[in-house]
Amino acid sequence: MAAPAKRARARSPVTVASPVLRAAPAPLPLSNPGRGHVTCSSPLAAGPGGGEPDGDLVAGFLRWCAGVGLELSPKVAVSRQGTVAGYGMVARESVQPGELLFAVPRSVLLSPHTCSISGLLERERDTLQSLSGWVPLLLALLHELQAPASPWSPYFALWPELGRLEHPMFWPEEERLRLLKGTGVPEAVEKDLVNIRSEYYSIVLPFMEAHSDFFSPTVRSLDLYRQLVALVMAYSFQEPLEEEDDEKEPNSPLMVPAADILNHIANHNANLEYSADYLRMVATQPIPKGHEIFNTYGQMANWQLIHMYGFAEPYPDNTDDTADIQMVAVRDAALQGAKDEAERQLLCERWDFLCTLEMVGEEGAFVIGREEVLTEEELATTLKVLCMPAKEFQGYKVQAGRGEQEREEDSLKITNIPKLQVAWRRLLRDSVLLTLQTYATDLKTDQDLLSNKEVYAKLSWREQQALQVRYGQKMILHQLLELTNEQLP
After folding, report:
1. Nearest to 31 by CA among 441, 236, 442, 316
2. Could you give the residue ranges of the DSSP H alpha helices within 404-460?
């Protein structure tokens, strides 16, 4: 069986990754509507309010599926009823693990290789290289959206309205910072916006102007390009590399009709699998009649979900949630405990040494999950080097950290943290305290909002989602704080 496919979303494709950020498997809910809660239809297809009713759109999409050989099981239905967010897929009858839900022929995938300007994109491939690697697909979408006879028009009709996407990149900057300060999302969005603008003006707009017969003036817009980047973030898929190709660059994203209708939860019940001729969505758990079918967008923390998809899973549903401790926060926590300038200089020397080992970086983060430290090697090495006696550090430096036997008592499994050396626990605790100071609110404030159903219901959609992101992170950090406080002198 082919390897299961997920949406490849470790990070935004236009954001430069930090040195040691966890790479979650492929990139995108919940008691409230998420990515699909906006009105259906692309403004470049049937505009909001001016298109067909929902039932006609779905019927048109299903006729299109039948015409192109996209096979849906009679046991599933595309619907807005019974779904957590906009369009989704619901079981008409009970489904057993291993049953095929639908199969998408590769010829139906929308990619730079299947679009109607594939020859042009291939000829100009060298001029379309970019940081994101997404420019060819985005140009394919820009062309197909304004093409009156695009073969994908019935598929586009089920897309959300582009002007109402809920990604934080579309929030006012003040709102983004006020609601998401400390979560890592505002910084990620700012990088996205800078890179999107640069990519558009340096590559995309010049290409469209040079080939104006393929791109009408209606699609030559930075705003539209930004919206399509967000849509590709949320709806595209990335074919996994074969195991022997792990060192290669990731495959380019592509659009998979029908598969992108499915919503996400961590405890999903379906997976997309790749084969030579088809992409198949297969049930992984029993799905009772009337229940929604959920795909996985990958092991996504809530900050990643809101950044790339515009929603978060309500606490405590997201078992893949994480909290970050910025690497420089550990350095700063060590420096604030230094007794004199000589000790500060020694700590700076140790930090520089860790940088040469590529264990830390100015923009990196240690990633803490609910049950494990996902960057265990990096954090353990950092605590060890910053806390070890001066004489021991000199010997360690000579060995460059190689050939050491890992000791069980130094393991950073969550359950083992109370057993760590006192100096390690104290430094880790101080780093958590510094991290908690970066949020605009404390845990109790967020807890009070969540526990009062009447007050929570009056919050806006953005306020609710941001609250879930903040609260999940703070719960992980406070758990770590309690574990590091145990038995400290």
Report:
1. 316
2. 422-436, 443-451, 453-458
d(CA 304, CA 183): 10
Beta strands 88-91 and 76-79, pairing class: antiparallel
CA gap 281, 273 in Å, rounded: 6
Q: What percent of the chain has pLDDT over 90?
A: 78
Output phi, psi for 40, to 5 deg: -75, 170
Residue by residue, what is the 3-state secondary structure of 305-322?
Answer: HHHHHCCCCCCCCCCCCE
Q: Is the pLDDT of residue 236 over 70?
A: yes
- The pLDDT value recorded for residue 489 is 63
Give the Cα separation of 424 and 480 in Å (integer).
Answer: 13
More confident residue, 414 or 88: 88
- 49: CB partners within 8 A, 6+ apart: none
Cα 174 to Cα 56, 186, 401: the distances in Å are 40, 10, 44
Average pLDDT over residues 113-119: 97
The pLDDT tens digits of the residues spanning 260-281 come to 999 999 999 999 999 999 999 9
Q: Which residues pair with 72 in a beta bridge?
A: 102
Q: Is the pLDDT of residue 349 over 80?
A: yes
DSSP annotation of 97: T
Tokens of 435: 């991290």
> Torsions phi, psi of 463, nearest 5?
-65, -40
How far apart are the C-alpha atoms of 69 and 405, rounded to whole Å? Answer: 57
With beta carbons less than 8 A apart as the criterion, state whether 379 and 322 touch.
no
Contacts of 295 (CB under 8 A, 6+ apart): 6, 7, 259, 262, 263, 264, 268, 270, 271, 272, 281
Q: What average pLDDT is seen over the chain? A: 88
At residue 47, the pLDDT reads 31
What is the longest distance spanned by two Cα atoms in the chain? Answer: 76
